[in-house]
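User: tokens in, sequence out, please.
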């Protein structure tokens, strides 16, 4: 920068042209500036701060979800109890009898049981006797013989 100097004119000194202010410029030797070795420390501190904020945000979100899920679980347990009570009421024999009577059904005056004979799974053409058991042994021998002949 130039600084203008004004001089009073006197009769003894002629008018001089304006001269720039010649001062020696000083280099800055102190003061606040970030030294290069501190930058990694600042970056590490910032990283730790960001990680801490991220961790606490994650923990807050997880706590909120846990609270929401616990409330839903309590609602579902309550609903399960209500539905269980309703199911027990609907399955009661008194209610079924009352509903049947409303539809015009009447209770039976007497009970009748029907007896059935068990049917064999493989119907046999011959009654099972001692002779049929002996023939079954012969049939077994015939099967073994046929298989042995087929193997030759």
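Assistant: Sequence out:
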């Amino acid at each position: 920068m130039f600084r203008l100097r004004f001089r009073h004119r006197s009769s003894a000194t002629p008018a001089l042209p304006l001269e720039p202010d010649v001062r020696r410029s000083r280099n800055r030797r102190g003061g606040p500036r970030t030294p290069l070795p501190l930058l990694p420390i600042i970056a590490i501190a910032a990283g730790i701060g960001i990680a801490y904020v991220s961790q606490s945000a994650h923990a807050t979100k997880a706590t909120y979800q846990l609270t929401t899920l616990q409330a839903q679980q309590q609602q579902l347990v309550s609903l399960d109890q209500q539905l269980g009570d309703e199911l027990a009421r609907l399955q009661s024999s008194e209610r079924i009898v009352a509903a049947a009577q409303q539809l015009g059904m009447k209770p039976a005056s007497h009970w009748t049981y029907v007896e059935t004979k068990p049917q064999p799974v493989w119907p046999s053409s011959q009654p099972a006797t001692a002779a049929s058991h002996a023939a079954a042994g012969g049939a077994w021998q015939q099967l073994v013989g046929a298989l042995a002949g087929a193997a030759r």
